[in-house]
Design brief:
2 copies of one chain form a homodimer. The first copy, chain A, is of the alpha+beta class. Chain A is 33% helix and 22% strand. In chain A, strands 1, 2, 3, 6, 7, 8, 16, 17 and 18 form a 9-stranded mixed sheet that branches.
């Protein structure tokens, strides 16, 4: 059942605009030969300004919140603020939040997060008829588009900084997190022009919010393998991230016989292989060592210290924690045998977030409305990748729509999404919003 | 048989001056919490100025050569240049070269290389009586002290840059070597104020040189275990250094199942462990992975590329090359099994250098002259660590004296040498020079 009054051509134009804007945002990068846009960087400020401009084109009022998230809001017809202008606080209608993030990993693709923000803007455009100064369909809630400032955690190791601020789960311990240059999160806030003392102002109250909906590429090969353009997300993986430090003794590479070496790099190498061996033996656990730095890092010195990262994900928190306990026992054995010390600093922990059944249902309906009629229901996928919804789950109900990601390549320059799939996604998400609006409240 | 006319007190003062100057040079560092002094850095320029000052105090004429080595020369009594003043070239007497290097690894100790340069200065002081304007003992050759500019290869990956220039074995391919910031060796020469076009001027002719003698800490535990202060070096290890590149595919750490991963970090970890396993099974082979960098290096991205170093040493070239061939077969297997590509760039190769029998003999005599009388001959050691003598071997005969290195700790802030051992070393080296001078030529 389609509720959306939009010509197919309108949707196709919207999808092409999303793709063109992905290209435009890809050019805002700290590197000239790839895409790198980290939290509180000059590139972050530039994409926020671009997003704000695009939001204002749609008649939204905009602000950058206290956590550096870029927000646009449009109130329903008849609301006091009339949809344009007015302050950020004190809105009378609760808002349906649509969004994703604009930050990237290093050497990133151009769609992860970004396509979700841009699709959200197209939903606003479709549901509103600017010429008439009101809504094509009367919505009982305001619409907000949020471009989150930090989902990846690339710069400070801690992910979901933007959405955690909005969810009201900010932890003051994070202020002392430092980036690779030693700049703390606190200093970076100040340099960006944000006041750390006002971080609480980014937090929303549950009664101000209807729900959070996000479209995102799958970042995995399942939809591509199943030849399906879209999926309903059932839950978002439980994740923990650690910084592991392995300590041995730096010594001359020539003069030191093997029997007296305490080589931190060899211990860390065994650790990385143990992560693979232990996790691959499990059903729904993925562990990855993505960072690995050896010190002092000279060709002729036995490494005395290695710092490595561990990213551990699972469908269920308990399973994930059981695997972590098994890993620590394995690391104790490896390091003990090699005369090394090791320790772990947990830099991120997020419980699995289950998407709200009602939202799964409206997204399923939305997907059905855009695809040709058929017998089987749309795929339902558990997301091993983390998303802003993990943080938003502490504030409100979360729903997610996945777009097919060719070959599952993500966090890589070859990351892709088809324009036709984006068009299906836009229609599915717009239909989902309308179905949600038609639910008795 | 002692030829040296020096009071024990003079030697003790000399050893204490060496130790104090090691402390003084340790303060010339790019880092505030350790010692780091790499090739063509501002710190390199500062220690060259200090060394030149100390050389001039001894009446030596000094110059920084075309490769950034700091040289001091004193001609024998009756030579045309009178020992002081005059140009760098055209000396009438061939010179005995004494020296070592002033560059360091990262987070280095304060004695590796440095103690040999400072001991050489004390040899000049002991053999000359400045007040009398001549030599305490008439020498048939000039004495030169060379503080080599790059032995470690810390900055450009290629070791022995300073001594290779002196030996006349400079390779123009090295100009394009780049440091971690992308600065090429050529650019670094220019920034340091050196003219790459004049590098040939640093080269010596064999007929200008008598021999090369160097004192150095052992950088291994053998003398400490044997409770011996000094040793004669029989040969310097054969060494090859490689930069290994492992290529896989960067992908999202959450969404990518193990069966489609091509994780460069796991392949590189297996490679590092294979180096240990294969080399430890050999008698005189040491292999070390000291550098290991993962790209893109994000906590939530599967590494698509790893660059690692391999330092491979052996007593004999053939043995070393056989092990390298075995390693390449092992790496082919590992990378093939994991769907990875790999390649190796050889950044350094040095054949084993055998110390000249005559020089081994005069050093043995020198050691005997400083130690209490006893039955057994001084220890003779094969050096697994590389030294400037490896390059100088292409120019002239090489002799080396090792000093005890407590616990064999080197390339580490805890690197140590005892003042008493330095005193023994100074006397042994001075006696060696005198014995060499008394040899029929």
């Amino acid at each position: 059942m389609s509720l959306l009054q939009a010509a197919p051509d309108q949707i196709a134009v919207a999808a092409r605009r999303v793709m063109a804007r992905c290209d435009e945002l890809a050019r805002v990068s700290a590197t000239t030969d790839g895409i790198e846009r980290v939290h509180l960087s000059p590139e972050h400020a530039r994409v926020n300004r671009l997003a704000a401009e695009w939001m204002r084109e749609l008649g939204m009022r905009t602000w950058q919140d206290a956590a550096g998230n870029q927000v646009g809001r449009i109130d329903p017809v008849g609301a006091g603020a009339g949809g344009v202008g007015g302050g950020a606080g004190g809105a009378e209608h609760p808002a349906l939040l649509l969004g994703s993030h604009l930050d990237t990993v290093r050497d990133a693709g151009r769609f992860d997060g970004i396509v979700g923000v841009l699709m959200a803007l197209e939903i606003v455009r479709l549901l509103r008829v600017p010429a008439a100064g009101g809504w094509a369909v009367p919505l009982p809630f305001a619409l907000e588009v949020i471009a989150f400032s930090d989902e990846e955690g690339t710069r400070f190791g801690k992910a979901l900084l933007g959405s955690s601020a909005v969810a009201g789960t900010w932890d003051d311990a994070w202020w002392d997190l430092a980036d690779a240059d030693g700049t703390t999160l606190r200093q970076a806030f100040l340099e960006f022009g944000l006041d750390p003392g006002r971080i609480g102002e980014a937090a929303r109250r549950p009664d101000e919010v209807v729900a959070y909906l996000e479209a995102h590429i799958e970042q995995g090969p399942e939809l591509d393998r199943a030849d399906e353009p879209l999926a309903v997300v059932s839950s978002i993986a439980s994740a923990r991230r650690f910084r592991l430090v392995v300590e041995g003794e730096a010594r001359h590479a020539g003069g030191t016989p093997y029997d007296v070496r305490r080589d931190a790099l060899l211990g860390a190498s065994e650790a990385a292989l143990a992560v693979e061996r232990i996790c691959a033996a499990e059903h729904h656990i993925i562990g990855t060592v993505g960072q690995f730095e050896a010190f002092p890092g000279a060709v002729n010195v036995i490494p005395g210290e290695v710092q490595l990262s561990l990213d551990l994900r699972g469908e269920f928190d308990g399973e994930r924690d059981r695997v972590w306990r098994g890993l620590t026992a394995e690391l104790d054995e490896i390091m003990g045998r090699r005369g090394l010390r090791w320790r772990a600093h947990e830099v991120h922990a997020a419980a699995a977030v289950f998407c709200a059944p009602l939202l799964q249902d409206v997204i399923r309906t939305g997907i059905a409305a855009t695809l040709p009629p058929r017998a089987e229901a749309p795929p339902v996928i558990f997301s091993r990748a983390g998303h802003d919804g993990m943080a938003l789950g502490a504030l409100t109900d979360v729903g997610m729509l996945f777009l097919r990601n060719p070959d599952g390549i993500s966090h890589h320059p070859d990351e892709a999404v088809a324009t036709g799939d984006v068009a299906h996604g836009i229609r599915a998400l717009a239909e989902s919003v309308l179905h949600l609006a038609s639910e008795p409240r």
